[in-house]
Write a structure and sequence with these properties.
about 30% strand, 3-stranded antiparallel sheet, alpha+beta, about 70 residues
């Protein structure tokens, strides 16, 4: 695992198509923004295992994908 330190408004670029930006840091919470093509699936870590088997997550997955675009 690569571990990087970033401050608010600093970014990390993955490949040519994905950019992750630290938007805000408050206490132990970090808000990030993700720019990626629409065909890149973006999930919160706790949803990765569940998303393959739980249809009720479809709405949340669409919401996350829309937010990333």
């Amino acid at each position: 695992m690569l571990v990087l330190s970033r401050k608010a408004l600093q970014s990390v670029v993955i490949g040519q198509d994905v950019k992750i930006t630290v938007i805000r840091v408050e206490g132990n919470q970090v808000r990030i923004g993700i720019e990626a093509p629409g065909d890149v699936r973006i999930l919160r870590g706790e949803l990765v295992d569940e998303s393959e088997s739980t249809p009720s997550l479809a709405g949340e997955l669409l919401e996350l994908a829309s937010a990333a675009s």
